[in-house]
Amino acid sequence: MSETIYTGIATSDGDGRAGGRVRTNDGLLDVTLALPKEMGGPGGATNPEQLFAAGWAACFHSALKAVAAQQKTPVSESAVVVEVAVLPTPEGGFGLSAALHVELSGVEQAEADKLVEAAHAMCPYSNATRGNIPVTLDATVA
Question: What is the pLDDT of residues 77-93, one digit of tens each?
């Protein structure tokens, strides 16, 4: 196994996703959690799925930029929207699915599709979830 480059550390306490708190060891992230209204909660605060989607969106966007630079493909503007859904499992638990929507300008559709696939191969979140949850990818060229 390779040497670790970085370890992110976060702690959840209180009631977890239902009104608890999560914070990073450096104090840069410190948020109260709430169940979304769609899951029978009060809403009004972030939830683990939003945090996961935010991390994945930022990481995937960085991978996209890195791949474009490696391939010397100029991308004038880009954005990544990640949707993380909670689904019931047949066993009575819960699972996740994800949809990654990438918006690009300055490239043709075929090149955008190749960049998105290459970013999906590079991104640690994509690699961690590959084969574990359903993930869809799409690229839109503006």
Answer: 999 999 999 999 999 99
